[in-house]
Task: inverse folding
């Protein structure tokens, strides 16, 4: 019996190592799933394979932001602006961006929350559009929900063009793919409309808040995963110590020299090449400027 003890101990150690390896693998898989990168998109990124860009211009934005009226202006500049309402379906129309791009298919994604899947579908990581216009109601940019909705769609557009742009801690752009995103400050003819510079600053702040909240959420989940993996398997008395907080509760610290994570740097939309264009679909002011900006974004090389 005593002779078999070393062999039994070796078997136990092997089993414990296998359990730890399995838990770490599950943790990495969960982190990938939370990052929002699909399996095929992740495989393409890992292998460095070129992505295919869809030959479309996609308009995204919250309900009543002015997407339908803007699409109508882009499709037929001479027509009177139509009476629009919150659409519950995808709208498609060919638009002319320049003499070199006389007919480009454009897609207006409905902004209703129940149809968010349409925005996700047309901002695919595998086949992103060649240009994306994020339409924001500039006259309602002072409303927190307007800014948050706009920032969420802006984040989706930026991630579609560069899947890692929102995860980097640096404020410097990683690629030129984000130049495919253009922000349309719609309803800029109204008295309460903010300027393009003001809208850029508001969206940068809101985008930073979204990224910080996401990073904090993922960090908390990762810490929970680590605790689940280590509890009952590895004695952690040498690497963790309990200390009394201000209210007498135990505070867990990971090691005597735990390092603070580097904070996220605020992304600068100008550095990312994201243009902000003030316009009015009602009067037509600024629509040609937007048309030129979208043409530049659409004409970028697709070899990224």
Result:
């Amino acid at each position: 019996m005593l002779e078999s003890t070393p062999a039994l101990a070796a078997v136990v150690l092997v089993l414990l190592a296998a359990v730890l390896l399995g838990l770490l693998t599950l943790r990495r898989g969960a982190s990938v799933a939370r990052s929002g990168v699909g399996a095929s998109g992740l495989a393409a990124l890992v292998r460095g394979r070129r992505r295919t860009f869809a030959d479309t211009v996609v308009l995204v934005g919250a309900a009543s932001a002015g997407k339908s009226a803007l699409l109508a202006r882009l499709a037929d500049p001479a027509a009177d602006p139509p009476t629009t309402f919150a659409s519950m379906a995808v709208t498609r129309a060919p638009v002319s961006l320049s003499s070199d791009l006389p007919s480009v298919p454009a897609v207006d994604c409905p902004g209703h929350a129940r149809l968010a899947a349409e925005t996700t579908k047309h901002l695919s990581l595998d086949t992103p559009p060649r240009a994306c216009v994020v339409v924001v109601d500039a006259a309602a940019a002072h409303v927190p929900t307007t800014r948050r909705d706009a920032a969420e769609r802006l984040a989706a557009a930026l991630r579609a063009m560069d899947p890692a742009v929102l995860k980097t801690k640096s404020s410097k752009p990683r690629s030129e793919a984000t130049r495919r995103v253009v922000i349309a400050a719609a309803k800029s003819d109204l008295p309460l409309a903010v300027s393009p510079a003001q809208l850029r600053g508001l969206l940068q702040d809101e985008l930073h808040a979204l990224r910080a909240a996401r990073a904090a959420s993922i960090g908390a989940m990762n810490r929970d995963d680590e605790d689940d993996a280590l509890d009952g398997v590895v004695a952690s008395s040498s690497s963790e110590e309990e200390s009394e907080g201000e209210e007498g509760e135990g505070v867990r610290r990971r090691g005597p020299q735990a390092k603070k994570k580097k904070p996220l740097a605020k992304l600068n939309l100008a550095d990312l090449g994201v243009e902000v264009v003030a316009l009015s679909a009602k009067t037509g002011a600024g629509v040609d400027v937007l048309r030129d900006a979208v043409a530049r974004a659409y004409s970028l090389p697709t070899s990224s």
In short: The chain has seven helices and eight strands. The first helix runs from residue 5 to 34.
